[in-house]
Amino acid sequence: MGWNGDVLREGTNGWTCLPDIPDNGGYDPWCVDASWQNLLDALMNSKTPSYDKVGIAYMLAGDAPISNITPGGMKEDGDWVEGLKAHLMILVPDHTMFDNISTDPNNGGPWIMWPNTPYVHIMVPIDSYPAK
């Protein structure tokens, strides 16, 4: 599916894949399940997501530089993530499950992205992402 919502090629497995976002400083195609589609719709339309099942998304080519604090955040806000390689992203409806997971993207393992927002999720590196 294109970022404008146009279907580029119909699939049959329940996943939606989106191409690279041009001109955002990186290469970032990704694939999402229904819960993630709900979150992306909410994010793009300034709504609160309403998914009620665990959600999985993956970015096997890595990600463009991005704020770890909030969607649309700027580098100047701090907690900027660069050089992210292949990773999974996990949504859980019960946000209390995030309580004991690090928010540090440089901890060498999974971390919470966009904490304290309706778009909070777990980032799970599946390619080497060096700790600082």
| Major sheet size, sense and barrel closure | 6 strands, antiparallel
Radius of gyration in whole Å, from Cα?
14 Å
Helices and strands, in order, run as EEHEEEEEE
Stretches where pLDDT falls below 50 for ≥5 residues? none
Number of strands: 8
Estimate the global geometry from the Cα principal axes. Answer: globular
Tell me the structural class: mainly beta
Percent in helix: under 10%
Q: Average pLDDT, to the nearest integer? A: 89
As laid out across the biggest beta sheet, the strand order is 1-2-3-6-8-7
Detailed description of the structure:
The chain has 132 residues and is mostly beta strands. The protein has one domain (16-125). The chain is built from one helix and eight strands, in the order E-E-H-E-E-E-E-E-E. A six-stranded antiparallel sheet has the order 1-2-3-6-8-7. A two-stranded antiparallel ribbon has the order 4-5. It is globular.
